[in-house]
Specification:
The longest helix has 23 residues. About 10% of the residues have low confidence. It is globular and about 40 Å long. By secondary structure, it is an alpha+beta fold. A hairpin with a 2-residue loop joins strand 4 and strand 5. The protein is about 40% helix and about 20% strand. The chain has a single domain, classed as TATA-Binding Protein (2-Layer Sandwich). A 5-stranded antiparallel β-sheet has the order 1-5-4-3-2.
Length: about 170
């Protein structure tokens, strides 16, 4: 027999330490969506760098069939004009025509909200990610079709999934 069975109690402190370590590694829950605002904002987890966030955004978005057609380093442009933003301040555009086309086929005016944007910014030394929620934007369309509503929700869910991975630096 390889293991000898004993009646000794398991070291309780060791178990508690292991549980606490697992809890420390777990990311905080995603914030609830406020239906009264277009902005959905999430803080980046402690220990996750800006570089980790960018790599995660790129990798996750590509894996979900999004393209990143443009980046806007707004903070850098402000600095070149002598202004001093609090830190990182940029917008990255993402597009998934699988979702967006479903909305724009019925409501071409929705193009004003395209492409989707993910903001990356610092406020009081905390890095944040945020989106403009497609379901909120759809409120600007008179009588949106069921297809557009369903696509806007799917698009929003996908963007929130990207934010969730990026805030943790997951790839």
């Amino acid at each position: 027999m390889f293991f000898k069975r004993t009646n000794k109690p398991i070291n309780g402190l060791l178990i508690v330490a292991m549980l606490l370590a697992n809890m420390a590694l777990a990311a905080s829950a995603m914030p609830k969506i406020d239906p009264n605002t277009a902005i959905y904002e999430v803080p980046v987890e402690s220990g996750v760098s800006y570089e980790d966030v960018i790599l995660s955004l790129k990798t996750t978005a590509e894996g979900m069939n999004f393209v990143n057609p443009a980046n806007f380093p707004i903070g850098e442009h402000m600095k070149s004009r002598g202004q001093t933003p609090q830190g990182i301040l940029e917008v990255r555009a993402f597009c998934n025509l699988g979702y967006g086309a479903e909305i724009m086929l019925d409501h071409p005016e929705f193009v004003v909200f395209a492409p989707c944007r993910i903001a990356i910014y610092e406020r009081q030394h905390q890095l944040y990610l945020a989106i403009d929620r497609p379901t909120y934007d759809l409120r600007s369309i008179k009588n949106p079709t069921q297809r557009a509503q369903k696509a806007a929700q799917a698009l929003e869910d996908a963007l929130i999934a990207i934010l969730d991975k990026a805030r943790k630096g997951d790839i």
